[in-house]
């Protein structure tokens, strides 16, 4: 929670509202920032970060309620989990290894990237630091109480302090899989392997595994 700062002077109601207006204007950028994974694959009119967060929030509410989780907490996590991308950008696992040659890029993007453990850890730590600093920059003009709440929610998704945080982190990947399947449905040349590898290696929640099976039956007309 370091680097969070309280304002020295007590703000008037007008100052408080101005801070919120400025904050919400910055948040509006998420409606126009396109998800980088889709841009790399030349998806026409790809979803924005806000598009993703909206459906994730709905999925968190409905599926979280089905599991008996704290849906209020889940909704908050879904809404803040990608706020950092306003300044940090939407990073992908391919960014460090993406070749300049377009043909080689296309081939690389068909597979889920593999790294040595030390390189994987380094990439994760660099990404996490950049995103954390971005989040602090975004919320720096809010009250300390609001800053702490947003940071705690974001860290919970990152580190899984609660069962809600662990569920939301997995659900985030499932929503991403659903979006990839929708693009695949429009273009059967869309490479689905990276998403199936990712969910196979990261999803263990029983309800989400059932949901993934339902997705498979919907888009492939058979069991995964």
UniProtKB/TrEMBL annotation:
<comment type="subunit">
    <text>Homodimer.</text>
</comment>
<dbReference type="InterPro" id="IPR003607">
    <property type="entry name" value="HD/PDEase_dom"/>
</dbReference>
<keyword id="KW-0378">Hydrolase</keyword>
<keyword id="KW-0479">Metal-binding</keyword>
<dbReference type="GO" id="GO:0002953">
    <property type="term" value="F:5'-deoxynucleotidase activity"/>
</dbReference>
<dbReference type="GO" id="GO:0005737">
    <property type="term" value="C:cytoplasm"/>
</dbReference>
<protein>
    <recommendedName>
        <fullName>5'-deoxynucleotidase</fullName>
        <ecNumber>3.1.3.89</ecNumber>
    </recommendedName>
</protein>
<dbReference type="InterPro" id="IPR039356">
    <property type="entry name" value="YfbR/HDDC2"/>
</dbReference>
<dbReference type="Pfam" id="PF13023">
    <property type="entry name" value="HD_3"/>
</dbReference>
<dbReference type="InterPro" id="IPR006674">
    <property type="entry name" value="HD_domain"/>
</dbReference>
<dbReference type="GO" id="GO:0046872">
    <property type="term" value="F:metal ion binding"/>
</dbReference>
<feature type="domain" description="HD/PDEase">
    <location>
        <begin position="45"/>
        <end position="186"/>
    </location>
</feature>
């Amino acid at each position: 929670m370091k680097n969070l700062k309280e304002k020295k002077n007590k703000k008037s109601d007008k100052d408080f509202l101005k801070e919120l207006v400025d904050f919400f204007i910055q948040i509006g950028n998420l409606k126009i920032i396109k998800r980088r994974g889709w841009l790399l694959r030349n998806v026409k009119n790809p979803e924005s970060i806000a598009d993703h967060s909206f459906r994730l929030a709905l999925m968190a509410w409905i599926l979280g309620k089905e599991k008996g989780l704290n849906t209020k907490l889940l909704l908050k996590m879904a809404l803040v989990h990608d706020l950092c991308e306003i300044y940090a950008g939407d990073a992908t696992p391919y960014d460090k290894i993406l070749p300049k040659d377009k043909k080689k890029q296309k081939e690389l993007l068909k597979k889920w990237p593999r790294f040595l453990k030390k390189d994987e850890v380094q990439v994760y730590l660099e990404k996490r630091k950049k995103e954390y600093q971005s989040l602090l920059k975004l919320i720096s003009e809010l009250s300390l109480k609001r800053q702490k709440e947003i940071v705690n929610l974001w860290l919970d998704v990152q580190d899984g302090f609660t069962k809600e945080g662990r569920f939301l982190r997995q659900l985030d990947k499932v929503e991403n899989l659903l979006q990839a399947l929708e693009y695949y449905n429009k273009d059967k040349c869309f490479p689905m392997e990276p998403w199936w590898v990712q969910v196979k290696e990261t999803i263990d929640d029983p309800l989400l595994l059932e949901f993934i099976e339902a997705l498979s039956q919907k888009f492939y007309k058979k069991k995964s």
